[in-house]
Specification:
Largest sheet: none
Strand content: under 5%
Shape: globular
Number of helices: 4
Distance between the termini: 22 Å
């Protein structure tokens, strides 16, 4: 399944802005677990870099499980 990275990141940021840190972390964890060998609009490296940015920028997000 193709995931538009801009839309996906917007959803994660909206979760964070609404205080749904657990849900944002769960979305990112699932996104990072997906198979990137298929044709995709995003690489695992870019998704992981976004996750690192979220951990550094939002302490409440960082409090949730990190899978990499």
């Amino acid at each position: 399944m193709r995931v538009d990275p801009m839309r996906f990141r917007a959803i994660v940021v909206l979760c964070i802005l609404n205080g749904s840190f657990k849900e944002a972390a769960a979305l990112m964890a699932e996104h990072l677990r997906r198979d990137y060998s298929q044709v995709s609009m995003e690489s695992r490296e870019r998704a992981a870099a976004f996750d690192v940015y979220l951990h550094q920028s939002f302490p409440a997000y960082a409090a949730h499980e990190r899978i990499h």
